[in-house]
Design brief:
Elements (H helix, E strand, L loop, with lengths): L4 E6 L2 E5 L2 H20 L5 H32 L4 E7 L2 E6 L6 H26 L8 H20 L7 H14 L2 H31 L1 H30 L4 H4 L6 E3 L4 H12 L4 E5 L2 E6 L1 H5 L11 H4 L1 E2 L12 H11 L3 E6 L2 E7 H16 L1
Helix pairs in contact: 1-2, 2-3, 2-4, 3-4, 3-5, 5-6, 6-7
Amino acid sequence: MRSQIHLGSVFGIKIGLHYSWFLIAFLIVLSLSAQFHARNAAWGEGLILALAVLTAMLFFVSLLLHELAHSLVAKSRGIPVREITLFALGGVSQIETEPTSAKTEFWTAIVGPLTSAGIGLFCLGLSGVSGGPANPVTAIVSWLGYINLTLAVFNLIPGYPLDGGRILRALVWWKTGDVERSTRVAARAGRAVAVIFIGFGMLRFLAGAGLGGLWIAFIGWFLLQAASESYRQISFKRAIEGVTVGDVMTPDCPTVSGNLDLQHFVEEQLLRTGRRCFVVLESGEEAGLVTPQEVKQVERGRWPFTVLHDIMRPLDQVRTATPETPLSSAMEMMSRNDVNQLPVVSNGHIAGVLSRANLLSFLQTRAELLAA
């Protein structure tokens, strides 16, 4: 889940929104407006709407704190975190590598529900001293208290990828010492929980619950997809275990002159060969790389007057791997930097290129052979 709108960063962790966030924010504001109006219509429509918007924003702040707790614990244990994204079903921390121990997995997972529970209890305590039910402040903090406690309990459900599923995974991992087995157990639990949610939601819908029942079923569908994805990740990790970049890369890397203009480069190299990554030579030395991505950033009318030297990425600014780099590490690097090609360097020279096309072909071949 990638952010489409970036809000900034906290403790070096990028914070962003997915477009789906606006949908759930709108629905929460509508729901809160109805609740506040039913509680005290004398507040007036303008005040009720303002309170609903403020409460919704504070709720998303609490979600951000929940995810930030996960991320900070992960970072404190040496696990890099790319960003936190808020989306329709809450938030997700983009943790780049798997925990190295069951203990790390346990504390990274449990700190989120603990944070939500702490926020909930604080808000409920504040509601007890903020005045009666007719007080707008009481209405806000009371709702935030109950919703955060509900969030904490919901996340403790032992089904992957919920926090409770990750806690279950950590406990099984600690008991058996087998990370793959623990992930399978947690993923199966997640699938079972998802099916229960879908069934319960549909029953509620048929019983007249309307949108509320469909929403529960939708959450179940999301959990089912996430749990199934974890199964695929297990199979994927097995497929690439022991595989290095040198086993998958394209060993030859075509070269072009830095003085070649883009018009001739596109017509004679890109379109004719279908290759997507070229090494730029200057004075006989490898100076940089050029791919279709760089070409697309130049207006077509400028192609005859722009040479590759002007658009290439200098080698010292390019992420590289070695033939001995584990394939899993190279894929994490490509994902983290959002690149489609990764140059492979050996003895100071480019020995080949690892591309997403290489990866897809490798995985397809493995899948076909394993299924035979």
